[in-house]
């Protein structure tokens, strides 16, 4: 994929309606659908527009809110599949996620079901999701997906409140038979402003832990809004080669090479607004008046976000800027400028730029 031409992932927020009240919700979801949500006809038109990216088409991720709140959900999936899109979906863990619904998603050709688990127990997860029972509904849906052969991704929040639960979550993800575990490092926007991010040194230790546990589990591990995991991987692999060892083959990290907000990612809101990413809500246009293909390829902000040499501060001089590039959403949240440095990354770029720093200390057990 050439990310200047087409994104790897297009996220379409079908609705902001949701029965949950998550403490970290980017969308600040509410229980009812917005009256200006894209209609079914407008949704079909959007899919036709997105098909204009041409092959290979981006992966389409239907998100929310809760996509199950859209009565035309399966019609939209059918139209997307007929146009050649692979479709993933991120439903909320509620009573609506029944065995019948999971089976319908499988029959509709959904490529992966992504469910959120932010705690390894009901008490932990439900406290963040705001509704008792969400943990049980989510775990049951994951088991139904596994029994049906529907590929499963588990998404988990990483923040100060969840950090010590990550090893137990790792075990639960394996028990549920997921193909991928995606760890979302909190960006303080929306209701997420009420939670605390991990400190940069804590984030670095988590990355070191992920590197060590990845070869030991049967599923891929990726990070969201923390692309400096790629820098940690590159440092550790280089160190192991210099030491005469054979570094593990971490294919999942290579697949994310260079992808970040606005570079390989495009986000469409429930009312059709176009953003570089869901966590970077800088409006670039609206699909009712602008072609998202042209916006993605030519908008000045996206052109800038795809050029790490334009980044400011240490991100702009970092030797890993083309592999990583930092979270543009977190830079914007912290400074108001999406080209500034990602404050979560503690790495200080070396001089000259070609120098690779030794890996940070760490072991396979997260310190308390």
UniProtKB/TrEMBL annotation:
The lineage of its organism: Bacteria, Pseudomonadati, Thermomicrobiota, Thermomicrobia, Thermomicrobiales. Keywords: 4Fe-4S, Iron, Iron-sulfur, Metal-binding, S-adenosyl-L-methionine. Residues 4-216 form the Radical SAM core domain. Its cofactor is [4Fe-4S] cluster. Residues 343-368 are annotated as: Disordered. GO terms for molecular function: 4 iron, 4 sulfur cluster binding; catalytic activity; metal ion binding. Pfam families: Radical_SAM. CDD domains: Radical_SAM, SPASM_MftC-like. This is TIGR04053 family radical SAM/SPASM domain-containing protein. Coiled coil: none annotated. It comes from the Bacteria. InterPro entries: Aldolase_TIM (IPR013785), Elp3/MiaA/NifB-like_rSAM (IPR006638), PqqE-like (IPR017200), Radical_SAM_PqqE_MftC-like (IPR050377), rSAM (IPR007197), rSAM_sf (IPR058240).
């Amino acid at each position: 994929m050439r990310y200047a031409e087409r994104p790897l992932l297009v996220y379409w927020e079908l609705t902001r309606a949701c029965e949950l009240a998550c403490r970290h919700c980017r969308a600040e979801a509410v229980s009812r659908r917005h009256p200006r949500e894209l209609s079914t006809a407008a949704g079909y038109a959007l899919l036709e527009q997105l098909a204009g990216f041409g092959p290979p088409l981006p992966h389409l991720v239907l998100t929310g809110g809760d996509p199950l709140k859209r009565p035309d959900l399966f019609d939209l999936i059918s139209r997307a599949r007929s146009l050649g899109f692979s479709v993933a979906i991120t439903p909320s863990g509620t009573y609506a996620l029944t065995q019948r619904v999971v089976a319908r998603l499988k029959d509709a050709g959904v490529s992966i079901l992504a469910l959120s688990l932010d705690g390894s127990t009901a008490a932990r997860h439900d406290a963040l999701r705001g509704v008792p029972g969400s943990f049980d509904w989510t775990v049951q849906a994951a088991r139904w997906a596994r029994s049906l052969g529907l590929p499963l991704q588990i998404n988990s929040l990483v923040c100060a409140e969840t950090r010590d639960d990550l090893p137990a979550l790792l075990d639960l993800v394996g028990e549920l038979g997921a193909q991928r575990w995606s760890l979302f490092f909190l960006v303080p926007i929306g209701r997420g402003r009420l939670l605390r991010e991990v400190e940069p040194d804590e984030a670095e230790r988590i990355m070191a832990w992920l590197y060590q546990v990845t070869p030991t589990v049967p599923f891929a591990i990726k990070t969201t809004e923390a692309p400096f995991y790629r820098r940690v991987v590159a440092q550790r692999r280089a160190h192991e080669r210099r030491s005469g060892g054979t570094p593990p083959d971490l294919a999942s990290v290579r697949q994310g090479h260079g992808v970040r907000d606005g570079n390989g990612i495009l986000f469409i809101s429930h009312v059709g607004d176009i953003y570089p990413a869901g966590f970077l809500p800088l409006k670039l246009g609206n699909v009712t008046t602008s072609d998202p293909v042209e916006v993605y390829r030519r908008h000045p902000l996206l052109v800038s976000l795809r050029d790490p040499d334009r980044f400011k501060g240490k991100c702009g001089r970092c030797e890993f800027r083309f592999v990583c590039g930092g979270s543009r959403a977190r830079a914007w949240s912290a400074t108001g400028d999406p080209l500034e440095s990602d404050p979560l990354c503690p790495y200080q770029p070396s001089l000259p730029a070609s120098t690779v720093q030794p890996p940070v200390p760490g072991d396979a057990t997260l310190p308390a």
